Amino acid sequence: MDQYMSPQLENQLLPLPEQLPLDGECLPCFVHRMLNRECVGLKWTTAYRDARAPRATAIERKFAELGGHCDCEVIANVYRRTPEKWMLPTPHEVRATPSPACLRVRKGCIRPCALWVKREGVQWGRPHAKRAD
What we know:
Elements: H1 7-12, H2 27-34, H3 43-52, H4 59-65, H5 71-78, E1 79-81, E2 116-120, E3 123-124
Antiparallel strand pairs: 1-2, 2-3
Helix pairs in contact: 2-3
């Protein structure tokens, strides 16, 4: 019976906690984790926004301007990996390298953790340094 289950139905049957961002998880880490399931529009981006950053009401428009019209494009065009933070496999490795654990952000924020760099306009930003307050 499992062989006939569609990805959409399978995602609907997932327990709700598995479809929500983890405590402190940043937007690109959440979307990257959820893309193992499916990419259907901005489903995971808006799920993150609704759960963690409801005041980020222009996220769809802003991400579209940067080439993020769906979740996989958000990861490909809006955010990119910070190379020194990811252990990428060498060509002779067969196993997939697991994603590192999210380095956490505060609730209400759509900034990436230090694993990611956000594109700013047509340029790529720099990893955010901690501010001295």
